[in-house]
Amino acid sequence: MFHRYLDISLFICLSVAFVGVENKLEFLPAPEYVNLSWTSEFDVKVTWKAPRDLDPRCKVNYTYDTAQNCSTADIGSHKTNNLHFNESITTEHGICFRLRTVPAAQTCDKFKSKPVDIIVPPHKALVEDFKCNYSCMKAFTCTWTPVSNLPDLKMYYRYRSSPHLFPCSEYQYDELVKTGCKLSGSFQEVIDVFFLINGTQDGKTVRNTFQRSPNDLVKLKPPKPDVKQDGIKLHFEWTDNNDCSECLKYQYTYKKCNSTYLSEETDKRQVELEYDFACQYKFRVKSIYSSICGEGDSVWSEELIFGEDRDPKGFSLVAFIVIPVTLSLCLILALVLFRRHRHIILPTIPEPALFFKDMFGNKDLADVKSVGVQNLYVPIEEVVESKITLEPEPSQLLNL
Length: 400
Ligand SMILES: *[C@@H]1O[C@H](CO)[C@@H](O)[C@H](O)[C@H]1NC(C)=O
Ligand SMILES: *[C@@H]1O[C@H](CO)[C@@H](O)[C@H](O)[C@H]1NC(C)=O
Ligand SMILES: *[C@@H]1O[C@H](CO)[C@@H](O)[C@H](O)[C@H]1NC(C)=O
Ligand SMILES: *[C@@H]1O[C@H](CO)[C@@H](O)[C@H](O)[C@H]1NC(C)=O
Ligand SMILES: *[C@@H]1O[C@H](CO)[C@@H](O)[C@H](O)[C@H]1NC(C)=O
Ligand SMILES: *[C@@H]1O[C@H](CO)[C@@H](O)[C@H](O)[C@H]1NC(C)=O
Ligand SMILES: *[C@@H]1O[C@H](CO)[C@@H](O)[C@H](O)[C@H]1NC(C)=O
Prior knowledge:
Immunoglobulin-like; 5-stranded mixed sheet; 4-stranded antiparallel sheet; 6 helices
């Protein structure tokens, strides 16, 4: 009996609480007569009317978001108490505007309205693969592939912040068909550039619009690495193909056996390493903008591979056995050769005693000199007069 009473009172309590919450959980009515109209090639104006059945005591504002997909456009990034807004948009992808009525602070105890979605579908492609690059922060070039045949195709561009539209002044062609444009003007610190490509098809103007951000398109080519071995040194060097070398720094990385090294930014275009013969080197380098010129970098260069990973044990065999043995053999060979050719390498020096004997003999100074300069001692023969006889011959003696 008591239990049942408790159940009923709990039920009543919960119901009251629920009714209380439901009273507060009232949504504001959504904006009405929502209308989107184009005011230029890139500008839309969205207008609406305040909801009719709005509690007059309730003050409201409106929020809207812009996104490619309505489901991601729901944070109320813009708030206004006007009944319109303007936006600059392009139609490469679809656009969704999501609009809601929201309570103005403190005046209204209701929740934001259900959304009204305004969808701008993506354009039908006249060109595909619309790509731009901002090479070296100098040349801003865009390219595309035509899909429709538009003999009078033209390209225009403008900065997001300004309504002035510039015609392309330097087209790129592929067999008389326009496939690109080199833009003129400065794009440093420009956030967005809008592009219009239009032409006539079946007597009607058709158009595609695109939006690109130069800062996301800074492109640098990677350097070309090269390596030279110089004894126990490796020289990695690279050449740069970008035409803004005054703006560039480099960063390199190499893998040596299993360890990886990443350099700081450097101005140099070469690096010298101690060559570890047991290791393979895998080298890469990239170009980076120095901060005075902008931001951005190239992709890593292709990998330059030098040497081979050798089995460390095999290598120590080489280092501790083969090299000393080879050196010993060389030494022995050198000694043998030395002995054999000693008379050339270390000539015999004349014995001083003999030398002086010659000097004071009946030799003139020139000869002495030549003995000193030339290295071989040639003993000088004594002059012996073999025919001189001091005593008469025995026959003569007999005749006397
Ligand atoms: C939308 O706005 C345009 C231009 O302001 C106007 O011509 C058109 O009638 C409006 N459409 C609706 C349904 O309100
Ligand atoms: C929008 O996002 C939802 C969920 O993330 C996805 O299912 C839907 O396909 C998307 N629509 C478009 C047009 O991208
Ligand atoms: C919201 O509405 C209130 C009352 O209408 C107004 O004073 C306030 O400026 C609005 N807020 C914004 C962000 O427009
Ligand atoms: C929106 O654009 C229209 C037409 O370009 C202009 O008259 C109006 O002042 C703009 N409003 C705002 C709030 O920028
Ligand atoms: C393309 O757009 C420009 C700028 O709005 C315009 O002057 C030109 O007439 C358009 N071309 C065609 C074929 O409609
Ligand atoms: C930038 O685009 C131009 C034109 O397509 C091309 O010649 C150049 O190689 C590109 N630069 C880079 C770094 O991709
Ligand atoms: C290098 O890595 C390989 C496989 O990842 C391993 O087998 C080898 O022992 C490593 N060498 C060194 C010197 O760490």
